[in-house]
Amino acid sequence: MRSVEMFTGCGGLAMGLSRIGFHHDLLVEWNKDAVETVRHNQELCVEHVRDWPIERRDVREISWRQFAGADLVAGGPPCQPFSIGGKHGGNNDHRDMWPQAIRAVREVQPRAFLFENVRGLTRRAFAGYLDSIVSGLTRPGPGIRYEVAVLNVNAADFGAAQKRHRVVIAGLRADTVGSVPIVRPFPTHSHDRLLWEQFVTGQYWDEHGLPRNLNSFDKLDAVRVRRLREQMIEPSGKRWVTVRDALHGLGEPNGENNHVFQPGARVYKGHTGSPLDQPAKALKAGDHGVPGGENMMVRDDGSVRYFTIREAARLQGLPDDYSFPRSWTESMRQLGNAVPVELAQAIGGWMHRILSTDGGKAAIAA
Fold first, then answer.
1. Which residue in the list 79, 309, 351, 355 is annotated as catalytic?
2. What distances in angstroms separate CA 194 from CA 141, 200, 238, one per listed residue?
């Protein structure tokens, strides 16, 4: 299936969609460093990336009509206008690009679209603007109508090693899906399954060659663990992926392949880092600081250090041969803005199955 993508960044969304079977006709990104990261990996012949037709352009200057008939329009419009960590300018922020996303849908008239953003977009303060976005995407132009769903998702529920809460706005063209409502994708991973394998069966510790510590759960999880032990009903699906899972086999920083120690990490009130045996806190771009210690880990001995670029790339689901040629700060900015590959693959796969089922005439669950 053919797709076009806006606001590609360093390529997390594009990677997930490529893996699930979408062929990109065009990827567009304005940030020079992010584009150079993608091109650097094209030179390294990284799978999928080597075939991406990426251009460094302003989306406002592109005529999308040349891609009319593509199956999917995707992208992650800049989140800063709506981010809790930003200035909350919303549609008054010059970085608000939702009008361009709507224009792309109007000009391409794809069978479907997928847009990802921060969950701050669903805050009460932006309710009116979110309504206008949904309205614009529902009827982006004369004679065009889409069935639109606003999905609040946690990337950890779809296999990413981060508790990354995001909003996905998905749409299916009415003549593709008819009047059938979009059935939201079903999570594949769960917190309860992780707690089961950690504190009921001990399987998690066995896999990592660690002593079984069946009573070390966080106070916030105590009620859930007690319920699981009392009911002894094994949760279905897969467990949440932890930091320890994601970084398995990587070892301490060795100075190679972006796995370079970054000094300066420290703990203070509210700035505590990510424990190894949970999914990480959501990586942050850091434009307004990283107040919760999101970009550092808490090691087994209680000490902290910053994630290396390689570790952050793993937490975002990028392969180990995907390289970042810029500084730690710039690379972490790109990674903090990226869509986790696992989330992109799960949501993209959900949409791919919808479009592949009976010619896309029925919206099905994942």
1. 79
2. 46, 10, 8
Using CA atoms, how far apart are residues 189 and 101, in angstroms rounded to an integer? 30
Candidates 357, 366, 344; CA nearest to 17 is: 344
- Rounded to two decimals, the pTM is 0.92
Cα Rg, the chain, nearest whole Å: 21
Amino acid, res. 35? V
Instruction: Tell me, yes or no, if 10 is annotated catalytic.
Output: no
Handedness of CA 306, 309, 313, 314 (dihedral sign): negative
Could you read off the pLDDT of 61-99 as tens digits, one per residue? 999 999 999 999 999 998 654 544 444 444 454 568 999
Q: Which of 149, 62, 47, 150 is nearest to 106 (CA)?
A: 62
Q: In 3D, which of 226, 207, 230 has the Cα closest to residue 215?
A: 226
Position 69 scores a pLDDT of 92
The domains of the chain, with CATH numbers, are 2-186+339-360 (3.40.50.150), 189-323 (3.90.120)
Give the distance from CA 186 to its chain's centroid.
16
